[in-house]
Amino acid sequence: MAVREIQLEFLQPSGRGSRLGPWLLVAGALAAMAAASYQSHLGREVTAREAQLTALRGMTGRSLPAISEPDSDAPGVRDQVKKANAVLRLMNVPWGELFTAIEAAENANVALLAVQPDPRSRSVLVGGEARSLPAVFAYMERLERTGRLHNVVLVTHELKNKEPGQPVAFTLSAGWQEER
């Protein structure tokens, strides 16, 4: 048996290079420039959106002026002015503060089912279910401790004997005050 000679070529001859290499380099450079341009565009867009958000947040803190009622207006116009003022009062209610206070008193033993705010009287009805009556009382105490809600009163409660776990359905009434 004859041993064959092994030929190993560690260096590639200079004539067999790929012609695709320079084109891939140009395509990669173009892709990098396009990505940089797109990133710059997105940065400008984010800055513009943040400016819009800041302006909108500034608008929510402003109170709207009431519409005056000149004496020379017809009764129909006076009714429209009263309705417009009522809408303005509703728009000036700090809904976020109210709902934040209610969410701050959250508990695993209590499930909220309804929140009915009354902006005119600055009161709110909160309906829900709790695992027990002591859980309802604890929830009432947490609502009082938020600082936004006061005079929390249990309006109704009902023990649901036929349901698993015998939950207590309840309705609470509370007054709320705005942050100063």
Q: How much is the radius of gyration in Å?
A: 35 Å
* Tally of helical segments: 4
Q: CATH homologous superfamily of the domain at 93-176 - what is it? A: General secretion pathway protein M, EpsM
Question: Oligomeric status of the shown chains?
Answer: single chain
The order of strands across the largest sheet is: 1-2-4-3
Estimate percent helicity: 40-55%
Would you write up a description of this structure?
- It is a single chain.
- The protein starts with 20 loop residues before the first helix and ends with a strand.
- The protein has a four-stranded antiparallel sheet with strand order 1-2-4-3.
- Helices cover 45% and strands 21% of the residues.
- With 180 residues, it is of the alpha+beta class.
- It has a domain of 84 residues: Gyrase A, domain 2, CATH 3.30.1360.100.
- A hairpin with a 4-residue loop joins β1 and β2.
- It is built from four helices and four strands; from the N terminus they run αααββαββ.
What's the quick description here?
The protein is of the alpha+beta class and 180 residues long. The chain is built from 4 helices and 4 strands. The relative contact order is 0.09.
